[in-house]
Amino acid sequence: MGRSPCCEKAHTNKGAWTKEEDERLISYIRAHGEGCWRSLPKAAGLLRCGKSCRLRWINYLRPDLKRGNFTEDEDELIIKLHSLLGNKWSLIAGRLPGRTDNEIKNYWNTHIRRKLLNRGIDPVTHRPINETSQEQVASTTISFTATDVKVKVEEDKSMVVVEEFQELEREDFQIEERCPDLNLELRISPPYQSHPEKIVGPKNLCFACSLGLQNSKDCSCKIGCSIGTSTGNNNKVGYDFLGIKNGILDYRSLEMK
DNA sequence: AAGAGGCCCAACCGCATACTT
DNA sequence: TAAGTATGCGGTTGGGCCTCT
């Protein structure tokens, strides 16, 4: 199907943002919140397309952005996350508070790539360069394309999700093999809550239970989950990275495209 | 001092996906 | 179910800045 342009390009500004435009955008978002990017420019009196506004806000104007140089710890975290996730910059950014995907992408391309090359490591495969050139080892990397993980809560699709999850589970050992020293506390958590104690409901559902498949054969937490019972020990199982370690994937916390 | 070349990063573009009608 | 629309993501670009000669 054809695509219409995201905006009327003939009447929009392009290029660097002016201070006035920034101020208009900030004050509009402060007053009305984020979202509705398509209608925002007109409402805010900006001659920009919605995409441009969104990008400007997310990458530059957001108040929670951490400006300044990356720390050594952040460097290492990015490298390790990249070795697991590849160029999934938004997922990587999700683990670095105050950093944007664009910022990390730029930083990767300008600094970290070179840093790894200097260490003799291929920035794509994260393997020693000479080893990479010797042979293409048939390795499996986790891909987060939509066809790999389709998390839908709709009941009719839930079995497909479980199958795809099991596929990820089988690949788990390869992650450990590639990063034996990796202990990033990579617990993907729900979006930040200023008052987490207010969250109501079971804290750690297994994947099947999260899909509403309690008591199904795919439920991996028959002992620990016990939704709605007083016997459930919800603290037994933590949020490991993607929940894979425990065979538990909390779909609620996955950032889906 | 000034020109050339490289680096950096904000912004753009095209596409994929989700959502709506 | 198909078509239309909105949003988000990753790759790429271009212009300003910095360094070197």
UniProtKB/TrEMBL annotation:
Signal sequence annotation: none
An annotated Gene Ontology molecular function: transcription cis-regulatory region binding
Keyword Transcription regulation included in the entry's annotation: yes
Keyword set includes DNA-binding: yes
Pfam name, any one: Myb_DNA-binding
A GO cellular-component term linked to this record: nucleus
Entry-linked InterPro entries: Homeodomain-like_sf, Myb_dom, Myb_TF_plants, SANT/Myb
Keyword tags: DNA-binding, Nucleus, Repeat, Transcription, Transcription regulation
Domain Myb-like, first and last residues per copy: 9-61, 62-112
Tree of life domain: Eukaryota
Compartments where located: Nucleus
Domain HTH myb-type: 9-61, 62-116
Protein name according to UniProt: Myb-related protein 308
